Structure formats: C-alpha cells, structure tokens
C-alpha cells in the first residue's frame, strides 16, 4: 500500500514531509526543545492522552491566530495574542 505524500501538520503549511515525520524542519525546530522532546517521548510511550494535549499545544503555537476560527481573541499582549495552549476549562 502506497501512501499519498504527507504534508507538514502545521496549519496552512504545504511542505511535504517524509513518512513518519509530523512537521517540516522549519516548523519542527520552531517548537521549543521541551515540546519536541515531550511529543517524541509520549508518542514512543503510546501515551495518547498526553500526546494529544501536546499536539494541540504544538498546533496552537504554530498557528496563534487561526483565520477560520470564529472564536474571539481573548487577550493581546502587545502585538501577540495570548494563547491558552493548555489548561482547558471544560
Ligand atoms: Zn511546515
């Protein structure tokens, strides 16, 4: 079974990545060391819940201002929107 080329998972990024990679190098290395290490560790440990939380955080970091979202921006710090990547209130 052959797979179609996979694109970088970062929002709006069209760069093709190798099988088994999540992001193109630009996006991957724009994540913090902590986040990259934690993503790899939780993935290898098959720790799905923790991985998904980190994954959401990574995508939020890479796309701080999603254009399709209808949710209002909660706050700004200077030019940067304040992003709540973790600690969701449900
Ligand atoms: Zn990318």
> What is the overall silhouette?
globular
- Given helix and strand content, the structural type is alpha+beta
The parts where pLDDT drops under 50 for at least 5 residues are: none
- Major sheet details: 2 strands, antiparallel
Q: Key features?
A:
34% helix, two-stranded antiparallel ribbon, alpha+beta, 9% strand, binds zinc ion, 90 residues, 3 helices
What would you note in describing this structure?
Helix 2 packs antiparallel against helix 3. The chain has a two-stranded antiparallel sheet. Strands 3-4 form a two-stranded antiparallel ribbon. The protein has 90 residues and is of the alpha+beta class. Strand 1 and strand 2 form a beta hairpin. The protein has a domain of 58 residues. The chain is globular. The chain is built from three helices and four strands; from the N terminus they run ββαααββ. It is 34% helix and 9% strand. The structure holds zinc ion (ZN). Zinc ion (ZN) binds next to helix 1.
Which helices and strands occur, and which strands form pairs?
Blueprint: E1 6-7, E2 16-17, H1 25-28, H2 33-44, H3 48-62, E3 76-77, E4 80-81
Antiparallel strand pairs: 1-2, 3-4
The structure holds zinc ion.
